[in-house]
Amino acid sequence: MGTAAVLTGLGAHLPPRRVTNADLAERLDTSDEWIASRTGIRERRWADPGVSTGDLATEAGLRALKSAGLGDDARIDLVVLATTTPDHPCPATAPEVASRIGLVDAAAYDLAAVCSGFVYALEAASNAIRAGRAANALVIGAETYSTILDHTDRTTAVIFGDGAGAAVLRAGDDTEPGALTGFDLGSDGTRRDCITVPAGGSRQRAAGGEPAEADRYFQMRGKEVFTAAVAHMTASARAAAARAGWPLGTVAHVVGHQANLRILRAVGEQLGLDPGTVVSNLDRVGNTSAASIPLALADAAAAGRFAAGDRVLLTAFGGGFTWGAAALTWPDLAAVTTDERSPIR
Ligand code: UT7
Question: Which single residue of 29, 116, 257, 308 could bond 318 by disulfide (Cβ 3.0 to 4.6 Å)?
Fold first, then answer.
C-alpha cells in the first residue's frame, strides 16, 4: 500500500459547431471516403470565432468538479493545463482558467507536450500529490487547433478538432479504484520538425524578418509520425503496465491518443490485446491533441463502457516527439457528459 493520485471526477466540453467530412470536401480536394478510411474521422468540432482554449478548459474544469461532487466552494491546490494552443504566448492560460472556475490561490501552470500533454500533466499532478505538495489537483487538456490549422492544407485541416477534457485527482491509496499506479514518459527532440508551427516563437523572432505564411501554421509529416506513434505508444504502454505490475492480459481497456483509428488498432494488436479493448471516439471529435484522452475517457464512461476496478491503460504520442502512458484503475465515477447538453447549463 502507498499514496497514489486517485481519479475522482471527469468532465468534457465540445464546442457545438460540427464540421463533417462532407463540409470539408466542399472546399478542399478531399472526400468523406478518404478521410474516414485513412483516419476513422467522420466529423470534428471547431470553436466559433472568439472562443478560446481557456473558454473550453473552463467548461471542462467545471464539469470535472461537478463529477467529483465538488461545489462552488471547491478547494483545489493545483491546476495543470496541457495545451498546444494557449490563449496567449504570455501569461499561461491556467491561472485565468483557475480564477474563472473560482479556485482561489491554486498553483496553476500550462504544460506543453502537444498530443502527449494530458498524460504528462497527469504525471506532474500525480507526483505533486504523492509528494504531499497537493491534496488534490485539476488536470485539464484543452485545445483550439482550428486556430493554428492552415485551412487550405488538406493533409492537416481534415484531422484536428477542438475540445477540452478535465480530471480531478485527490490523494488516496494505490490499491483503491481510481488510482494511477504506473507512468512512463519520454521524448526525442531530434524529430521536432515532424510536428511543428515553425513561426511565432523565439527561434523565428530572434532570426528577424517576416516568416513565410505557411510557417505561421501547424505542419506535420504524417507518415513519419504514424510509424513513430505506433512504436512509442506501444512501448510506453508496456512500460507503464510493467511499472504498475499489470500483466498485459489483465488490461480491460486501452485509451490511446485519438490520432488515427489505424494507429489505435495497430497499438492494440502489438500489445496482443483483443480489438474490443481499444477505445475510440475520434469518429466524432477528430484529433483533439491534449484533449483527446480525457475526451475519450469521458465518452466511454458516459456510454457505461467501464466498470469500477477495470484496468485502463492510457497511451499517447505527439509533437516533440513526446510520448507517455499511464496505468489507471477505473473508479466509481458519477455520470459524465461530453456534449452541449450539459447538466451544468
Ligand atoms: O497527433 C499527433 C500524432 N499524429 C498522428 O499520429 C498522425 C499520424 N499520421 C496519420 O494519421 C496519417 O499519416 C495521415 C492521416 C496524416 C495521412 O494518411 P496516410 O495514409 O499516411 O496518407 P499519405 O500522407 O501517405 O497520403 C496519401 C495520399 C497522398 O497522395 P499521393 O502522393 O499518393 O498522390 C496525399 O496527397 O493521399 C493524399 N492526401 C489526401 N487525399 C485526400 C493527403 N491528405 C488528403 C486528404 N484528402 N485530406
Answer: 116
